[in-house]
Design goal:
With about 425 residues, the chain is an alpha+beta fold. Helix content is about 30%, strand content about 25%. A hairpin with a 4-residue loop joins strand 11 and strand 12. The protein is elongated.
Amino acid sequence: MNKKRIIIIASISVVVLSLLIVFVLVPYIQYSGAKKLMKQGKYEEAIQVFSAMDGYGDSEAMIKKCHEGILDREYNLAFEMMQAGNYQDAVQIFSTLRGHRNSVDLIFVCYYGIADAYEKEGEYVQALYGFRELGNYQDAPQRADALWARVAARTYVSAGAFHTVGIRADGSVLAVGAEENGQCKVTNWKNVLDISAGDLHTVALLADGAVRAVGNNQHGQCNTSDWKNIVAVSAGWVHTVGLKSDGTVVAVGHSEYDKCKVSDWEDIISVSAGFSHTVGLKSDGTVVAIGYNDANQCDVSGMQNITAISAGSYHTVALKADGTVVAVGNDEDGQCQVSQWRDIVAVSAGSNYTLGLRSDGTVVAAGNNEYGQCMVSEWRNVVQISAGARHAVGLKADGTVVATAYDVSASDAMWNYAYDGQCEVADWTNMGNLP
């Protein structure tokens, strides 16, 4: 073989070898390296290598496996978080994995765990909302019902005539609005379970069954220091009513029209003090009332199957077991036009208007709206309502509070009603407390 021929063959061999290195050996090395990255769980790096291989071998299939590996890695991380009780972070990851394995089912598990944790921590309002959002999942409906019974038994936010008060999750109290009578001097209160704002005074039930009161005491409406074994309180215009653990009732304050003559009441499970009358709900679902009755606000003897009551200025509202509402008394402003309401779970009577909380967390209203006190149709996720004289407040499931937008341009010469900041609750958080 002559020298020239050898050179040609060698050149061809070099070219062939180069081609083999470029098109066979290098891709194989890259492919092997990418698979090694996969085994190490470095899926993102492996995807970059496989993507640069222009369809070499089964690189496209490997890319899909890498994506599955990423999902599996995230799934396993979320699963470990869930098992450790870190439901909040776990549900955020599972929510990005919808459709991968059983992520959707585990989202429900996490939300259930979150609601359960809220209940164990005493955050009953948030727990109630959480179980409601779960629908018919496991025993969520039963737990929501049980929590609702506990939440409904306490008042966490209360609207008075010129001020608003609320209980925080730690048992302390916030207040905004008129202070000239000391009705907002509640900053040092602790271990509060139930609260009620009257005209110019505030009353609170403490964890030990005692009662504290501040504000105007012209008629003795704050003389509650000797009360014991109280389970609920209600502040009227110038009188205060307390429900005792044995189902009897005590009252102090202005006794005109006999509104404080409740010592003979028995088997009472709920009380409400209005302007000049007092209403009590009995354990058999019937209602009793005493006091000023010029508008028939005390004509409650025919009420049956009642689960909640509320006394306004000159009207009385009652919630029936079937979610409908009945009302008696003054109806000049339509505050008693509630017969068409359905799916109601709580009611609150203001001076001349009425609020109703629906089972879906929305709120309805009837009556006078001169100051915007009935502008509640846009409220959502509400778990408790309170109708004051001319403003309304609502506790939301996340522990925040909403209030009606008071119309400062309106005036009421008769009552000399002025805006005192009673709707300034936008910064309230972590509201709601139970022992």
